[in-house]
Amino acid sequence: MRSCVFLLSAAFLCVTSAQFIPPYTEDCRTHMYPPNGPTFRGPVSWYTVDLDLPPSKRWTPLITDKKTDLVNMIQAIRDLANAFVPSGKLIELVDITLPLMVNTLPYPFNEEIKGISTDSGVPLGEVVLFNIFYEVFTVCTSIVAEDNKGNLVHGRNLDFGLFLGWDVKNKSWTISEKLKPLVVNLDFKRKNQTVFKSTNFAGYVGMLTGIKPHTFTLTMNERFSLDGGYIGILEWIMGQRDGMWMSFLTRSVLENANSYEEAKKHLAQTKMLAPAYFILGGNQTQQGCIITRSRELSINILEIDLKLGRWYVLETNYDHWEEPFFLDDRRTPAMKCMNQTTQANMSLKTMYDVLSTKPVLNKLTTYTTLMQVSEGKLESYIRDCPDPCMPW
Ligand SMILES: *[C@@H]1O[C@H](CO)[C@@H](O)[C@H](O)[C@H]1NC(C)=O
Ligand SMILES: *[C@@H]1O[C@H](CO)[C@@H](O)[C@H](O)[C@H]1NC(C)=O
Ligand SMILES: *[C@@H]1O[C@H](CO)[C@@H](O)[C@H](O)[C@H]1NC(C)=O
Ligand SMILES: *[C@@H]1O[C@H](CO)[C@@H](O)[C@H](O)[C@H]1NC(C)=O
Ligand SMILES: *[C@@H]1O[C@H](CO)[C@@H](O)[C@H](O)[C@H]1NC(C)=O
Description:
Layout: H1 3-18, E1 40-43, E2 46-50, H2 55-58, H3 60-84, H4 89-102, H5 109-120, H6 124-132, E3 138-146, E4 152-160, E5 166-167, E6 172-173, H7 174-179, E7 183-190, E8 193-201, E9 209-212, E10 216-222, H8 229-238, H9 246-256, H10 260-269, E11 276-281, E12 288-293, E13 298-303, E14 312-315, H11 331-341, H12 348-355, E15 365-372, E16 377-383
Parallel strand pairs: 2-7
Antiparallel strand pairs: 1-16, 3-4, 3-14, 4-15, 5-6, 7-8, 8-9, 9-10, 10-11, 11-12, 12-13, 15-16
Helix pairs in contact: 3-5, 4-6, 5-6, 11-12
The structure holds 2-acetamido-2-deoxy-beta-D-glucopyranose (NAG) (5 copies).
Residues 342, 345 line the site of one 2-acetamido-2-deoxy-beta-D-glucopyranose.
């Protein structure tokens, strides 16, 4: 079985011993948009990243603005590490070993990470840690849907911070809470023209959510697998470096691919350090797919197929041809709400409704992003999930 099943069961016991929260579902939400009420914490601000600047200088305006929040988040990670290994030895190890690793990371990511460390004053090893180990703690929901006029709508919830410190008093995940102030929208420009846009965490240089306006939209979800990220990351440290970091691949595709087909090819064929799901939307009818990846290759591509009545594709963190783990079934409720919405009523508004329905919305949900390729639109919202609410 997957490592995640074990970890989730452990987390479930851990959380339920604190206070029992039954699997919590609700009727599909409606009229949630424009975002308001207790599940909407606030809007996300925009920053420009100028790709014409040297990599070490690109993030300076953002990091200067977000320095305090970044330092707070890193401090929370340190506190967690010190709770596991009280001597402080774990962070000492990170500070000593991970800076050595930064030079093995591909350009321009190595230079960008060094720049972020300089701009924020956060030790280099801890910035590296934030950039590479995110992927162990992410669970998500991504959907690409086609309305009955052929417009593609792409939505996602980014659920981050699983296992990273359950705060019994506040009934929240410590790191998820600390990440919310770091959520930003980024406009990547070259020669003063937008190349792509994304929703990101300040201090993180890879991409989990992005749009190339009028061309394609892309999100990445974690895929738990025995041949998982740890092995690839260990191999990287040991010197075997022919695979690509997943979120660097998505960023490179957003930066360089010029069509849905080209993006699909790179996402399906590039060797990677860890398995993943890529959810890709194009700019024409039936251009929407889930690419299920092993480290080596694409195992399966599921596309929108109107003839078969498949007007959307939806991915959480389980292979679409298998049942989701029963303690973590966000797929069935999300599909139920998509089916209830119907293709005729699909829009950014109704997508937001689906992504606002518990447990698709849960205690880990840090942000919801909505993208419409034909208008080049990306909008995102910081989320809360007041009780009763599933921890994931
Ligand atoms: C718990 O929540 C309250 C109110 O939202 C906040 O002020 C406090 O800092 C939180 N405590 C922790 C440990 O996060
Ligand atoms: C960049 O574009 C914006 C509008 O898109 C314009 O207001 C600004 O003057 C431009 N800056 C430069 C340096 O060309
Ligand atoms: C869709 O993308 C292709 C490839 O970049 C481009 O040639 C075409 O003009 C785009 N179509 C629309 C409707 O934007
Ligand atoms: C949603 O509709 C699809 C296609 O008709 C169907 O295969 C699926 O079982 C439905 N799922 C739910 C949860 O209603
Ligand atoms: C779709 O939208 C129309 C108009 O807003 C509404 O009358 C209808 O009830 C909706 N259908 C569903 C299935 O929600």
